[in-house]
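Mods, move this if it's the wrong board.
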Amino acid sequence: MHLQKIRIHLMVHMFALYILRMQRTTSPRSHILTSSHFHISTSSHLHIPTSPHFLRMKKLIAILFILTPNEKLFCWGFYMHEQINYHAVFLLPPEMLVLFKPNIEFLRSHAVDPDKRRYMVASEGAHHFIDIDRYGKYPFPDLPRNWKDAVAKFSADTLQKYGIVPWWIQIMQLRLTKAFREKDQAKILKIAAETGHYIADAHVPLHASSNHNGQLTNQQGIHGFWESRIPELLAEKDWDFFIGQANYISHPADFIWKRVLESAAAADTVLRYEKEISQLFSEDKKFAFENRNGTLIRQYSAAYTTAYNQKLNNMVERRMRQSIFAVASFWYTCWVDAGEPDLKNLSRQNFSEDDLNQFRALDTTWKNAASKENVCN
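Not the wrong board. Structure tokens:
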């Protein structure tokens, strides 16, 4: 507890100093600072201003730190889901591109609707994960892959409690196939965008683990570190999304269960490697303060993020590439199973007023909930 108080005390000083520096500069660029910028050590005193203005600022920031839990300062973001849907479009054949390419912005931006819906619908959460380690040991032979068999063995309530993402993806697949068959453009785009989200979730190791945010191993925040911070920092400048073409999936259920098992097998590595890397970084090197869209946040430093990514041997990039391929291939499979309808002339080419109202309500509810929880996208 004493060390925690010292840490908070130092962070208050650093934030106040940072704000003073921001006030004195006219540079518009984003600032990212680690604790070392302020030359803080256990053997030296902090030399800080003592003006009334600084002391008032320090007091205000101290109050904010008391009221705001540390983990809320991490932005989990929507970047990864948006990019997966976006890049998946380019794997589609020309017959599908005539619809998906002109609507790529919708598919990108609405990739995150399922996450927003979690603030409106209590049952939505179970669609995003499966705590598969609750059912024994890898490869979890005691868990039936067929939904009816799993319900008969464990009950629907138990399955919902521990997550149903592999089964939910199959439901979304049937819905998308039906939308293609009905040639309903609005429904195709909406379901396709959301299907991409659930498929991407199945590729995240901690979506297949009961220790989903490191809460059982004192690694709170690791979920967002893996799926948000790493790709946000590295994807655009270092990663390759030239993947090829979507393939027809003959056995979608087997395909998605294979990806879930891959995620489950990787979960221990995700947690263990972060523990190992953490031992090599002092606290002031592990975190940085970043000015993002006018808001100062505490974030994993670039050095720490890069070191963790290297330790993982680029796992996040591989899973992101696999997600992109899987999303495009599911879209393509649904279109083929619907009889390869002509997508140039579809019904309901515009969203209804009811559709638009639902989108607005979803966005408003999420923004209100996110602001209360200090979540940023």
